[in-house]
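Review session, final week

We close the course with one last complete record, chosen because it touches almost every idea we covered. It is Metal-binding protein, a protein from Amycolatopsis thailandensis with 205 residues. Go through it on your own first, then we will talk.
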Amino acid sequence: MSENKSPQARPAQLDDRSPWVLDTRELGRHAGLSKAVQRTVPVETALGVPDVITIDAGSSLELDLTLESVVEGVYVSGTASAVATGHCSRCLDPITEDVEVDLTELFAYPGSATEETTDEDEIPRLVDDRIDLEPTVRDAVVLALPLAPLCTEDCQGLCTECGVKWADLPPGHGHEKIDPRWAALVDRFDTETGDDQADGPGKQA
């Protein structure tokens, strides 16, 4: 063990009933052996940014993974996919978005050089030949969610004056503003124009 490393506490046992926990014993710590895993896991706590975009509690994540035994541990690769919901950051319309993230993670064997030279928050560990996928998957999914989701790439958003979607407004829509310094002159012009029209054509001076 490195002189700069202190002994690490043994991780708590993992619950085999959890859908996030995978048993790797059949790999037998023989480098080169692998197995495929497909699993649907429930989302118990919403993932993402509330009121922006989330994978909601009560939905599920689809895992399509390969577990491979390597010298230092078990290497997990594959994808996690789910459906996210939220609101367009420009026009505020509700959106639904398919999310798929790539997963790559090494879970270190107890007593391996990797375990002895890294902290657990750097590289996760196997516990009794089992791995807990939840922290890895949750982190990857949250990082993959867009910070400013859009209903379409070319969404024009809302008119800043009336708050209506630009896509729903007629061509040439606008809100003309008059400089306050000219407002009195414009009012006088409008009044005089109205009086002239009221008098009608042909009025004699």
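Two points worth writing down before the exam:
The first helix runs from residue 113 to 117.
The chain is about 20% helix and 30% strand.
Good luck, everyone.
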